[in-house]
Amino acid sequence: MAIDRSKVLHSAQLFASRGQFDAAINEWKKLSAESPGDGSIFNSIGELHLKRSATNDAVAAFLQAANAFRAEGATLKAIATFKKILKVDPSRYDVYRHLGDLNAERGLLSSAVQDYLTLGKHYLKEGKSKDALDIYRRIVTQDPSNLDAQQRVAELCLQENMQDEATKVYLQLGRERSAQQRYAEAKDAYQAVLRIDPANSEAAQFIDHFEKTGGASGQPAKSSSAQGGEQSKSTEPLDLLSEATRRIEEKQFAGAEAILNQLLTKEPGNPDVCQLFAKLHLQRGDLQVALGEYRYLAGAALRAQDYAQAETLITDFLAVEPQSVAMLELYGELYGEKGDADNAVAQYGKAIE
């Protein structure tokens, strides 16, 4: 037999007004039994627990409320409730994971990263390296240009004896720092690679070139003209880039990848090669990998105020994946930087649809 909801609510309010909080909670629980997915009921129970100074019980009720709000798609209510939990009990660091996930779902990547960072730092302080690794991986997924997070992922992978992943992350760090002309930092990343894999040719060539140039450049210099007026083969990298581009366009992905790997070994961090790698991954359907690369490249162009390049990269990705929240948000940021508020709002609107 269904309960009389209005009568139960009246009783709950009456008990609460008299300070009989336990009795009021019991009335609300009758409603929660009938409507277990109603977050507002659990929120009311949580508020009553606070009035009786039962913090743990209040947090448990608020968690039920937040999860119910999230399940029904009431994202803003869920976020507000999770924040309420932190206000009641700041030690509930696990809540930051939920906040990060919700903000990521809304496309608010900077907020998501900040939430994850708070939790990741807590895990590091507590010595929970596996949990910290999971969180820092999430940060890198949301913000591939966050090199500090990549560095932390590599370090934690080493702690967990995940040497293959550590090598890949350190190599990526070396390439990106070299592309940003942060050659000393790139050297540190490549040296970390060599400590794991002394035979790694890309890292060895970068370190060798770095030492020969005294750190003035992170990329091998073009060969000068030989004695007797012989022409250098400086056109070879350009020819290889053209060949890699042709193969990508003809969907000969394996051949293109081999050429790009060869070029990257010769010139670690070469931005043209990195951009072609991103195009290869996009055309091949490796969308998650391509997303990270395109976001990094477009973000770097945006920071350098090369708006034309940033827009080309963003639109190239959106042509394949038009519903990408991350790229739509970046497109909105681009228009904002250009002072085009109307188009910025339009792109942000598409991102949250």
Walk me through this protein's architecture.
With 353 residues, this protein is mainly α. It has a domain at 1-74: Serine Threonine Protein Phosphatase 5, Tetratricopeptide repeat. 76% of the residues lie in helices and 0% in strands. It contains 19 helices and no strands. The protein has helices spanning 5-17, 21-34, 39-51, 55-71, 75-88, 95-105, 109-125, 129-142, 147-159, 163-179, 183-196, 201-213, 236-249, 253-266, 271-284, 287-303, 307-320, 325-337, 341-352. The chain is elongated, with a radius of gyration of 27 Å. 39% of the residues are buried. Mean pLDDT is 85; it is low at 220-237.
Question: Main traits of this protein?
Answer:
mainly alpha; 353 residues; 19 helices
Briefly characterize the structure.
By secondary structure, the chain is mainly α. The protein is 76% helix and 0% strand. It has a domain of 74 residues: Tetratricopeptide repeat domain (Serine Threonine Protein Phosphatase 5, Tetratricopeptide repeat).
Just name the CATH architecture of one domain: Alpha Horseshoe
Overall number of strands = 0
Q: Helicity range of the residues?
A: over 70%
Total helices: the number is: 19
**SSE order, as H and E?**
HHHHHHHHHHHHHHHHHHH
Structural class: mainly alpha
- Per the CATH scheme, the topology name of one domain is Serine Threonine Protein Phosphatase 5, Tetratricopeptide repeat
Overall morphology: elongated
Low-confidence stretches: 220-237
Task: Calculate Rg over CA atoms.
Answer: 27 Å
